[in-house]
Fold each of these.
Amino acid sequence: MSESDLDLSDAEEETPHAEMKKLDIQGKAAEASSSSKKPIIIIVIGMAGSGKTTLMHRLVAHVQESGKRGYVLNLDPAVTNLPYGANIDIRDTVKYKNVMKEYGLGPNGGILTSLNLFATKFDEVVGLVEKRAPELDYVLVDTPGQIEIFTWSASGAIITEAFASTFPTVVTYVVDTPRSTSPVTFMSNMLYACGILYKTRLPLMLAFNKTDITQHQFAVEWMEDFEKFQDAVESDKSYNANLSRSLCLVLDEFYQNLRKVGVSAISGAGMKEFFETVDACGQDYMQNYRVELEQRRKDKEQREEERKRVNLEKLERDIAESKGEPVVLASASKKDVLGEDADAADVAEEEEIYDSDVSGEVDDDDDNEDEKHYRY
Ligand SMILES: Nc1nc2c(ncn2[C@@H]2O[C@H](COP(=O)(O)OP(=O)(O)OP(=O)(O)O)[C@@H](O)[C@H]2O)c(=O)[nH]1
Ligand SMILES: [Mg+2]
């Protein structure tokens, strides 16, 4: 794929290039970061239409009004109207409609591939945030409407891990409160949130949105009183009682240490509590998650070292056996490159990405920052 096919025109070729050179992203930014103050990254995830983007707008406005410094990322390539000004917008780097055309994909495939393409540039994004880190309090990240595209894709994991290995990172799971008043819908939503917790292994908070329509007290009661929740679920006769009892037990365990807050992106209710909860999750990250994360990173590095050692030994053996004859190396499989955990879909995706000629730059919209208005 050529640069023009991806239509990187909006990324203003000269400006980001020059900007990147000026900032020396890959070099100096990384150096500057380690000792300086770290902002909290807030990754906003939720079912389609739960209000992520509207909530982002409200959060950005609140950060500004309370004299804090925020940095804003949009990772939804398909959003048409962004109500807030993003410092980094995936749409400036990848045009998802062109990606759809280029690969003959439908809308979801187009969004997924766009995110994959952007993920290949994510070290630059982290570099840009690191450069600004000392003067920032929060980094707000909006994600695509189709939740599974972010939570179950290789690129979602790459992006989340890239942030979490550098900054305190919190996942905010946005719940559409009026649409979760049925116990079974509520349970499905909570099981999804539970899956995200286990997948990201990061502090997770629930933001019950749209409290201007329905207050979230019923949800708090269900979460704090196991029997009330079980009664509510079992009152739905269409549901298998044994299964619902088991699921209630699983969720009760999940609720134990889960932080939750009611908000309204429209009225602005609950903003103070939202940020208090984010700060508490940020502390959780520093006290509990960081240690585990570093251990996981060390384990991964060890596995990588081991893999390299085995390959090197194999190469030395091949050379010795060839006794001076030219050695023909079998090309490394994609599994070798991507690691043992890569599944067939990952491999296929990576082939698509790396076989294409993608050279878009990540556009940091810093220069216009003062002109942005986060007002309703
Ligand atoms: N009443 C009310 N409506 C809300 C609130 N938050 C969002 N909405 C509405 O919910 C709809 C979806 O909001 P979005 O912010 O686009 O939701 P989203 O999760 O970003 O949607 P996708 O990115 O398309 O999945 C819009 O019509 C919003 O106006 C809220 O707090 N109260
Ligand atoms: Mg949205």
Note: The longest strand covers residues 169-176.
Amino acid sequence: MSSPFTSGAQVARGGPSQDSGVQPNRNGGRRLRRLARASVLAGTLVLTVAATTSAYWPVGSRSSWVTQWFSRAHPAIDIAANYGTRVFPARSGTVVFAGWRSNCGGYQVWVSNGNGYYTGYYHLARVYSRRGDHVWAQRSTIGLVGRSGCASGPHTHVELWHGYPWRSGSYRINPWSWIDYGYYFPSRYQ
Ligand SMILES: [Zn+2]
């Protein structure tokens, strides 16, 4: 089976572009997705829709948790976990940057997820990937949770970009609109 995120065109319903600039109703979104997942049993068409709108929890611990949600002032979500917990890409893709940047993010990895979307993982303790690597959601360890850069405690700051990160014209979207899935997805968010 190929990665569920490589299949199909971007579908309008629930696509990340819809959430641009707006704090979505989280519970409403969850309910919709749960419905969509239930419908997966009923048909493959729905499976395609659900798969293209989901992403995996990117931290390898079920007891990790969100310490800061997406807002205009903080266009990302922060996931706290023990120092050294593995970080995976929320969706499979290709690493376009891996290393240190003096943008307060410390050691960081950026992954191109296709269709113009990129995810970034910041404040890492270690970087275990290189530019050009193909990395798999939930399977490839791209780095470890740390507190490098401007971070007071161990966590990773997860950004979802439309457009290449930090370029003019690119913008950030709430990654919570994607992340709702995976072995490590904490039960408190299900
Ligand atoms: Zn943050």
Note: The longest helix spans residues 26-40.
